[in-house]
Design a protein that fits this description.
Layout (H helix, E strand, L loop, with lengths): L2 E12 L4 E6 L5 E4 L14 E9 L2 E9 L2
Parallel strand pairs: 3-5
Antiparallel strand pairs: 1-2, 1-4, 2-3, 4-5
Amino acid sequence: MDEKDQIGLIKVYYPVKGFGFITRTSGKDVFFYRDAADKEESLIEGSTVRFDVERTPKGPRATKVVRVS
């Protein structure tokens, strides 16, 4: 089951590799790819983001990542 409208902080982002992790307000950290964001410029460590989570064979992955602060 996918989870919609989650809130979290970008814990770490590796721009050269194109991925990072978001710390959720509830639950475990979630992986994301650069192309999940509306703008790559919004992927700043420590920024609050809103996102959806989809289940994949490798585990949960954030999609539709949008910076809110």
